[in-house]
Amino acid sequence: MNKEVDSPEKQEKAGVPWRKKIRWDLLFLALSIVAFAGLGIVYREKGSRALHISWEYFQELVFILPAVMILMGLFAVWVRRETVVKYLGKESGLPGLMISILLGTLPTGPLYVAFPLAAMLLKKGARLANVMVFLSAWACIKLPQELMELQFLGWKFTLLRLGLTVALVMPMGIVAETLYHSGGAGESESPKGHADATWGRDPKRS
Amino acid sequence: MSLTAVVIDSLVAICLLLSLIKDREKTKTALRIAWNAVKRMGPSVLAIIAVIGLIVGFIPAQWIASTIGSEKGVLGLLIAAALGSVLFIPALIAFPLASSLLKMGAGTMAMAAFITTLTMIGFVFLPLEIKELGKRFALLRNGLSFVVALVIALIMGLIL
Fold first, then answer.
1. Which of B63, B148, B155, B156 to mutate to test the interface with A (most CBs of A within 10 A)?
2. For chain B, what are the domain ranges?
3. Per-residue confidence in pLDDT tens, chain A, 206 aa
4. Which of B43, B120, B132 is the closest to A116 by Cβ?
5. What ipTM goes with this model?
6. CB distance from A181 to chain B under 8 Å?
7. Strand (E) positions, A1-145?
8. Which residues of B touch A193 (CB under 8 A)?
């Protein structure tokens, strides 16, 4: 039952912070499996429905996650930092925001597969506002989903909601960037590869 | 296998092939990076899938409908936005649900907020987002998305 509570002696040899995080996600996984099994045994019918749904999402994952991760790997080795900085970096302005929306709109899977891609973009020098916009576009603008919205909620509702989302996501990215860099940004919390954010507000020299 | 998966997989297969032809060593590095990412994300993603199954399997659509439908005005709007953030509901269920709620007299505003937070905010994904992008980034993105969802809903309520 409580195999996740046995950590103290392991923690000693693993002083590295990211080692600790891995244990968190294993705990999360163990808890959800326990919850799944428990609820599934007590409520048979709902449990099998839940299992069916999880299985469907698992299949989606198996077909999409490896491909997106390979794409990320290829991006990491082939796309030069200067290219990312040029199109998505600090100086990219409105075109950069537009490119981010387009990138997010490409045929894509669930939101969570985009997180490592976003981290990679930051690492390569994309500006934070653009990465925010990219993730938001990935989350909201999906053709199959929009077709369903159109069908059930009508064109007025769908187009207005979509238009407003696209329009508002850009200022949101900029606000997020400003807030991110203000008020003692980062310490160890800054995204991977974005450590230079910490040096934005320097104390006076001399 | 969905159409999206077919498109992504064939696109990536072509890229991988081109990369392999151009430079074997670089391709190897790319695949190693990909494999590390899969290993890193694996447990979180499996947990997410389990939680999604539990939410969809155990929270009846009627309960969501009655919770959103029972309050009007600002409180209704906030409840709808909050439910959309916390829950994970597949589009196949969410849109028909929203449509029938609208026919039953729920506000456009609440429905717009519900759909928007549903797509943009994922409490289920939060641990993974924090892991990949850092706490500050994840909280800012989710928090601001909530605000944006409310703004979208208010404007839509005024126009429609």
1. B148
2. 1-41, 59-159
3. 444 444 444 444 445 665 555 567 888 888 889 988 888 888 888 888 899 989 988 988 898 889 989 999 998 999 999 889 988 998 888 999 999 999 998 767 788 889 999 999 999 999 999 999 999 999 988 888 888 999 999 999 999 999 999 999 999 999 999 999 886 544 444 444 433 333 333 333 33
4. B132
5. 0.88
6. no
7. none
8. none
